[in-house]
Amino acid sequence: MAEELAEVPDAQGVVTVCSLFGDIGATGPALIAADTAQPQLEYEAQWGTVTKLVGQGLPWWPALLRRADVISQWSPGAPVTIAELLPDEEEMTLRGAADIKWPVPDVQTALTDLANALRNQRVDSVNRDSRVFSEHGATPDGAPLLVAARHPAEGFPLPRTDDRELLAQGWRVLASSQLFEAYEPLAIVMRLDPTLLPFGAYVKVSDRSLSARQWAKQLRPCDPSALHAVLADDAKNVTFHMDPSTGTPAVRTRTLNGGEWIFLAPLRLPGRRAQLKSVILDDTVWMSTTDGRIYPAPHPPHEHLWWGYGAGDRPTEAAWVIAQLLDDLSSHVTLADHWASAPQGLTKLLNHPHPSSTELPRSALELARAQQNEDLS
Prior knowledge:
Elements: H1 2-6, E1 16-25, E2 28-35, E3 42-45, H2 47-54, E4 59-60, H3 68-71, E5 81-82, H4 89-98, H5 105-136, E6 146-147, E7 149-150, H6 164-176, H7 183-192, E8 202-206, H8 210-216, E9 220-221, H9 226-232, E10 238-242, E11 249-255, E12 258-264, E13 276-282, E14 284-289, E15 294-296, H10 316-327, H11 338-341, H12 344-351, E16 358-361, H13 362-370
Parallel strand pairs: 4-6, 5-7
Antiparallel strand pairs: 1-2, 2-3, 8-12, 9-10, 10-11, 11-12, 13-14, 13-16, 14-15
Helix pairs in contact: 4-5, 5-6, 7-9, 10-12, 12-13
């Protein structure tokens, strides 16, 4: 703005442009400034200095209430404006989808609950900012910061649903839906709370991977669901698949430089009276079973299975998943307390920088698990 004003004769009388910087400075809310004489030089300005220049207390608005219709209501001595947040794009998307007639009411419940959660988070943000700036953004003479607008307290927080299984059932219906209206809500829940979906972590592997090629033989081509569309994103050359054993959705993308498999990991593997035969380290962790099948290792959202040195970290996630599947292939794996729960021997084995496509047979895994405190070569 200072640069634009500098191009106007006399800069319309403006010497300095100040902007809120988002934090708290030494004398009130932090300001960044630029002079029209040298607009390329930005510097920190003091709220207290500007207050003295103005000659009266300056109003401050929480970031989410800095709207023209709210700011225009202020004048010196005016009461605090009570202003409700406007819904953001994601909230409007969820509420719009909730207005559609879905086959089960659980879908509306799930969509409305997430929309309410988003609104509550934003209201909490406004209230928190108002409280923090009121307490710590006082002016140099000790006067409290003039907070010019607040969010109404009545009617908030919006109600939430405590039954996670009910919410998960609604999202299961959306995940299998082929309606376009399910696409954006699924993209939102994938980002905010993927644990509500019946699948695990987002995984991407090369389609040249030997394990991925073997797994692909178990997949079935299918019509795309809304969840397939989320996984495909904006890829152009895409085919859609599903693992009939686990229900895992997968998409295969192809480019001139090669292709990829993008999928959500399963949360558990089918039992089928089979056992874990071996673990294959190939882009991700794969499980080979005694009935001749192969699967990506099950693990929950927001987790990542890896091996190698790890820059000081240790691959306890993969070690703990393997340990659980050695005992029961169909175990619903958990990564809670994996750092403490993972067998030390398995962790040491996976800490080695195994080359891609390394296969660790069950005998080696069992031996490593038994060697809790021995150094493995």
